[in-house]
């Protein structure tokens, strides 16, 4: 079987550090069998069927244990470097994050087959959540250099946060384990979480514009236009290659419910308690805290303070659909 025609021109690759694609590169697909919405075997069968039909060389690299995800991604990157191939991540936001972090700066093109609930990262670049559509779009795609954020040197694609937001994510995951993955379950878990009075953090935010002291239950740094627009926060700063910080003044539980409702109706930016601003680099100090729980693209971990948020110096060479029929316009 013949290979597909070339997917991109060299001028679309400037600044990514990876060679131009020919449409014949071997694909190394890191697949998290424990993440996503459906059956992992069905996902693998779908991938095999489409790529076999297209005549593409590929290697499926399933990961059953999430602790081996980074190791498998490193192996995929090395093989892609040796064979001038492409690395593809198949899984939820955490999987996309882990593989992207391994790819960044290695001169290897990166593709995704998103399996998460909201798919903010994929949708922002027209990549469908439907595996067959996303994969066919990849095969008819081109490279787009994509901005990513970093927190203390660790990459994030969509957002990074501390305070109340990581707690919301932890509770949401627990509810999903019990009641299934859906947006309604995610909403209900948020309502329940807000019943508990959130702890206030005393932050010092230092960036190019100066220093500000703030008492707040949470700080979220966004890197995704769709997510910001979904809750009603201005996203123009992203177009200027900046990140967007979002935080709230100290409020009671009732006011937090009001903010939740505003977010659902894309009006969070209108709330008087909400503060948002763009930046390229920001240091966050937390009074009385040497370590803090953070969430990065939905994955929870502990991190030493101070925290440094910044735009990564290198961009991610993401393969996005070029053919309009494969674009996700939702």
Q: What do these coordinates show?
A:
The N terminus is likely disordered. This protein is of the alpha+beta class and 330 residues long. It has 2 domains: 130 residues, Rossmann fold, CATH 3.40.50; 138 residues, Sandwich (Tumour Suppressor Smad4), CATH 2.60.200.40. The longest helix has 16 residues. The chain has a 6-stranded antiparallel β-sheet with strand order 7-6-17-14-9-10. Strands 13-12-11-8-15-16 form a 6-stranded antiparallel β-sheet, with helices on both faces. Strands 2-1-3-4 form a 4-stranded parallel β-sheet, with helices on both faces.
Task: Please provide a brief summary of the model.
Residues 22-155 form the DAGKc domain. With 330 residues, this protein is an alpha+beta fold.
Helices and strands, with pairings:
Blueprint: E1 27-32, H1 40-54, E2 58-63, H2 69-83, E3 86-91, H3 93-103, E4 110-114, H4 120-124, H5 131-139, E5 141-146, E6 149-151, E7 154-156, E8 159-163, H6 164-179, H7 183-193, E9 201-207, E10 210-216, E11 218-222, H8 225-231, H9 236-239, E12 243-248, H10 253-264, E13 274-279, E14 281-286, E15 291-296, E16 299-304, E17 307-311, E18 316-321
Parallel strand pairs: 1-2, 1-3, 3-4
Antiparallel strand pairs: 5-18, 6-7, 6-17, 8-11, 8-15, 9-10, 9-14, 11-12, 12-13, 14-17, 15-16
């Amino acid at each position: 079987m013949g290979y597909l025609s070339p997917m991109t021109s060299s001028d679309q690759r400037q600044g990514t550090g990876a060679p131009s694609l020919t449409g014949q590169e071997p694909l190394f697909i890191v697949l998290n069998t424990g993440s996503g919405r459906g059956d992992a075997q069905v996902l693998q069968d779908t991938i095999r069927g489409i790529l076999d039909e297209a005549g593409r060389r590929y290697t499926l690299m399933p990961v059953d244990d999430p602790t081996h995800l980074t190791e498998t991604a490193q192996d995929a990157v090395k093989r892609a470097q040796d064979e001038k191939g492409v690395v593809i991540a198949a899984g939820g936001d955490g999987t996309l994050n882990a593989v992207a972090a391994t790819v960044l700066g290695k001169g290897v093109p990166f593709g995704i087959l998103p399996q998460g609930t909201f798919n903010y990262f994929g949708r922002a670049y027209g990549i469908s959540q439907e595996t067959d559509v996303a994969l066919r779009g990849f095969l008819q795609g081109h490279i787009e250099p994509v901005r990513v954020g970093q927190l203390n040197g660790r990459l994030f694609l969509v957002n990074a946060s501390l305070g109340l937001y990581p707690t919301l994510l932890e509770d949401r995951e627990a509810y999903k384990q019990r009641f299934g993955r859906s947006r309604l379950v995610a909403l209900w878990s948020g309502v329940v979480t807000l019943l508990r009075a959130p702890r206030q953090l005393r932050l010092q935010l230092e960036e190019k514009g100066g220093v500000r002291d703030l008492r707040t239950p949470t700080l979220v740094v966004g890197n995704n236009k769709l997510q910001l627009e979904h809750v009603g926060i201005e996203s123009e700063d992203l177009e200027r290659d900046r990140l967007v910080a979002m935080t709230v003044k100290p409020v009671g539980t009732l006011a937090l419910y009001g903010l939740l409702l505003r977010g659902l109706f894309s009006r969070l930016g209108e709330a008087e308690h909400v503060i948002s601003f763009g930046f390229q680099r920001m240091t966050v100090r937390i009074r009385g805290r040497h370590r803090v729980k953070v969430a990065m693209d939905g994955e929870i971990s502990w991190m030493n303070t101070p925290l440094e948020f910044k735009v990564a110096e290198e961009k991610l060479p993401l393969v996005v659909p070029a053919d309009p029929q494969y674009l996700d316009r939702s």
